[in-house]
Structure prediction request, 873 residues.
Amino acid sequence: MGAVYALVAMGFSIVYRTMGLVNFAHADVVMIGAFLAATLFVTMHLPFAVAITAAVLLTAVIGLGIERILRPLESKDLNLMLIGTIGFGIMLQSVAILIWGSFGVAVPTPIPNVPIDVGGIIVTTYQLFVLAVSGVVMLLLYLFLDRTKLGTAMQAAAMDRSAATAMGVNVSTSNAIAFAIGSGIAAVAGALVGPLLYVNPALGVYVGIKGFAAAILGGFGSIPGAIVGGLIFGLIEAFSSGPLSAYSELLTFVVFAIAMMVRQTGIFGERTVDRA
Amino acid sequence: MIRIGFGKPVLVALLLLLPIILDSYTIHVAILIMLFAIVAVGLSLVMGFGGQVNLAQAAFFGTGAYVSALLTTTYSWNPWLAAPVAVLATCAIALAVAIPALRVQSHYLGIVSLGLAVAFSSLLSNSDLTGGASGISKIPPLSLPGLDLSGPRDYYYLVAIALILIVGFALFVANTTLGRRFKAMRDDMLAAAASGIEIRYYRLMAFLLAGLVGGVAGVLYVHNARYVSPDTFGLGVMFLLLAMVIIGGQDSIWGAVVGAVLLITARNLLTGIQTYQQLAYGGLIVATVVFAPRGLAGAASDLRRRFDLPWPSIPIPRTARAAPPPPKLKVAKPSRQGVALRVDSVSKRFRGLHALDGVSLEVGAGEIHGVIGPNGSGKTTLFNVISGIYRPNSGRVFVWGRDVTGQRSFRMSRLGVARTFQNLRLFRQLTVVENVMVALDRDPAQAHIGYLIAPWVVVRKERERRARALSLLRDFDLHDVANELAVNLSYGRQRRLEIARALAAEPTILLLDEPAAGLNAAEQEGLKATIRKIRDAGTTVVVIEHNMNLVMNVCERLTVFGHGKVIAAGTPREVAASPVVIEAYLGQATPEAEAAL
Prediction:
């Protein structure tokens, strides 16, 4: 689960990093991604790889749409934009209910799921598969941001909008791409989490909020931070199951809130100073 | 002459007469509308006014309901005894949610509060104490002698009275000092702190009000429904509340009420198609933020402004108690002697960068002191240290001989240090006169207790403050735009307003950060005269400026910065002749450059 949270966290982070916006619809994009992949994989019997790719593309389009509609607010009021993304989240959730019903689907694992013993810890092959895929996606994202011209331009746009514009970076395009990539990663996370959990419209809330919290814990906008934060949340969850499971969410968020107050910028965050 | 609106009395009368014509089902819906209106008003106070994204409002509502339900069933308390306990419990929860708000910014807060809300509902559905998913039933009704509060009609009146009281109180708060401080904090935290507002306290306060109101609604809800279950307070309800406040208009109490009326009515008319409803809320929220960011209330006031339609009202000639005579604006303090401001080898580092490196300077009482130097040489950082925005890594700051090192911003304001910002930090969504009133308002936070024990004192002080603010605006030639939003002013006027706001705090030391930036020649002349006038009235002025004309003509002493250090100090003439300064500015000393200086 930690790897999935990390993926969700990365999706949040990339949008935050480029535009300083917290995308509250992200959690529900994860859910839509999960549904799309599940439908293609289970109902239409497509190979898992094809299902996941198609889901990624479709959600990327959704991401683009959200960004396009909220674009007028970009330079005006990020708080309003944030509320706008909450609005989109609500819409996506009800669309999911309309299309897939509120009960959800169980998704079989795409590879044979057998428990194996890794150094005394029992893990299943599917969990390892999730880890591997997440790792690849993270690596690709890192390479994209750090090694390509477009990635660099996007980082520039994030740091200083007007300076980047002056250097010929189209900030709107950069934001749109960030949204598309963020949503695409969300779909990967959703598709991967499908076989681990039961895919239902409320999935986004549960996976998404923890992913979000992971992003913040790791240091918002920081990719390594997102990974570490995700893993921490996965661990907290693993250890708080059992007798405490009813209170696991409460516990998670109390721990989280305390952590936030101790170190506001998260583990890898940069201390940003509000310039007077 | 004051005007009394027809609107409110008519509304109240309508509200009280409605049950006569409604059947009992409709009354039931009306009760629900009123309850949600109360909760939404709470959300509007914390989010619209306080600027604190709070996604736990439904949980506040739920806490009030559940605590009351538990106490009256499991512990068989009398409902009237349980009610205040439930409200207090809700306030406590609200304060607990607000603790993260002390440290984290809006979007972090959004997720923390959303997380707590999710945790709250999962707790409700998993805990045995709260009856799990099936909830608590057989909750006793409230009882009053002579009334049948288990029936809808009498209960309607109870809720209606609560609604009137809460909306009235919320409007009172919104339009007076507390609401203004909330809005100032929302619009610009740094400037609010620099105007003497203790941000942490007001954040707690905003949550406390939201919790109080939510708790009252929760209690009223539970003794009417007589049954609670977790999904009454789940995320769906939170989104509904959010939609009410956003669609109605975030910073409008009436907006929240209207939003509640519209959405609950819609919800009850369209019960069959719940999913589509949710789709519609989401869509409406998106449409509102994109097309009408201030919601219906904002749209209504824009329309009113455009067509100049006042609310229907009757004029009442004001008799006896006239407004107090505008007090003679005394910027002047009995001018003190000695050293106004002393900075003693202050250093400030950001990571490896030495923004300030052992800086010392002294400003005498009644002096106009200029701080100049190339961009990035540490001038604004110095101001931020003096005004309490940054804490220096080493060194000390003294104001009138008193060690004030590391005091927080609002304390510095109260100690008589006011400032302006180089990149204009006005309270954008406040009117011009309100901007000044924020700074004029020197009452400590404890004075807000007046809202509960002596509201008339709050009103009287407001009136005095407005009169003083207007007279100050007249001095700055801004009185004709007193009721415009600050954001709509021209740039030059915004600059002037910022100085007026700083002066309103009656500082003994005024820090001006590049006041001439972006002003045209005529405006610069005005600025020079203003600065001299401020000093003549007894305030010591420290000014950061790049405009050499202004610096050379107005300042009596200068301190020159270069790379975080003081490289020269003295009278303008001395400084202009200093080779170090010329080199810092022009790279190399040439006769022409010297002449230009």
About this structure: The first strand of chain A starts at residue 115 and ends at 118. Residues 2-110+117-201 of chain A form one domain. Residues 270-276 of chain A have pLDDT under 50 and may be disordered. Chain A has one domain: 2-110+117-201.
